[in-house]
Design goal:
With 98 residues, the protein is an all-beta fold. The chain has strands at residues 2-4, 7-11, 20-21, 26-29, 36-39, 45-50, 53-67, 70-84, 86-88, 93-95. Strands 1, 2, 3, 4, 5, 6, 7 and 8 form an eight-stranded antiparallel β-sheet that branches. Strand 7 and strand 8 form a beta hairpin. The model has no long low-confidence stretch (mean pLDDT 84).
Length: 98
């Protein structure tokens, strides 16, 4: 399991059926700062989405996850589920916004 700010990744066996390939490798964009969690190397990974969940397939030996406020993380070849930290407020449970 990896944590990169408010983004978490964990190895999974496979990407679910019917996931659609996204045209970018930006795992999350900061709503307040404009910063983003993204894969640095072009062509090293593919991002998928199904039912609001994201999955990352790293096809290169290593793909580097970067963000302007966090140190880089090197992800080895494999398949990952991506999810976002949530926080509780009396009104709702919501995604943490950076």
């Amino acid at each position: 399991m990896w944590r990169h700010g408010d983004v978490y990744l964990a190895s999974v066996a496979a990407i679910p059926d019917f996931a659609r390939e996204l045209p970018h490798c930006t795992l999350a964009e900061g709503e307040l700062t404009g910063h983003s969690h993204r894969i640095r190397e072009s062509g090293a990974a593919t991002l998928y989405e199904v039912s609001g969940e994201r999955f990352l397939q790293v096809s290169a030996e290593i793909a580097t996850l970067i963000h302007q406020e966090h140190g880089p993380i090197e992800l080895p070849r494999g398949t990952y589920r991506v999810w976002f930290q949530r926080e509780y407020t009396p009104e709702e449970i919501r995604r943490v916004i950076d």
